[in-house]
User: Which sequence fits this backbone?
């Protein structure tokens, strides 16, 4: 059992319902992390702890959430070692990648890095060779809401492509 805040648990329940309603995820595609896996993820955080919404999300959806985050590496185990990935990007691609006290929790197609900073609920992003670090969302719940806020027809297309790929 974990001690997530009640509002986070309610948000996670609503998120699961919305993923299923959109057919963005199917029940078998929603896979949680074990407590040991969550501890492994949190061990990579260079400061206290990331926001509780992120921790709750990883507990509930940490190993998969269907097509949510399609094209991104956010789920376990791909979320491990992202600080080292950011350091590699800094050495090899973009000397301006900010490292410091950041917990890198994901990236999109290798060129957009997502992180948290100490005592900051906001999600930060850094695009390689881009305009620098910027706020991607005021919090992790908003970050997820932004990813869900695409036209419903796209969720259907993602699903049709998935099914077409399985037949091929």
Assistant:
């Amino acid at each position: 059992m974990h001690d997530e805040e009640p509002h986070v648990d309610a948000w996670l329940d609503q998120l699961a319902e919305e993923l299923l309603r959109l057919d963005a995820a199917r029940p078998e595609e929603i896979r949680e992390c074990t407590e040991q896996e969550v501890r492994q993820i949190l061990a990579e955080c260079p400061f206290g702890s990331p926001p509780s919404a992120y921790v709750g999300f990883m507990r509930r959806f940490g190993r998969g959430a269907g097509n949510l985050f399609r094209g991104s590496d956010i789920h376990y185990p791909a979320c491990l070692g992202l600080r080292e990935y950011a350091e590699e990007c800094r050495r090899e691609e973009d000397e301006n990648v900010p490292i410091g006290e950041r917990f890198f929790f994901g990236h999109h197609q290798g060129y957009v890095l997502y992180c948290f900073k100490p005592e900051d609920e906001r999600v930060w992003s850094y695009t390689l060779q881009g305009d620098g670090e910027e706020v991607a969302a005021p919090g992790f719940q908003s970050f997820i809401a932004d990813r869900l806020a695409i036209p419903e027809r796209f969720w259907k297309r993602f699903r049709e492509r998935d099914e077409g790929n399985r037949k091929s």
User: Anything to note?
Assistant: The chain has six helices and seven strands. The chain has one domain: 6-167. The mean pLDDT is 94. The first strand starts at residue 30 and ends at 31.
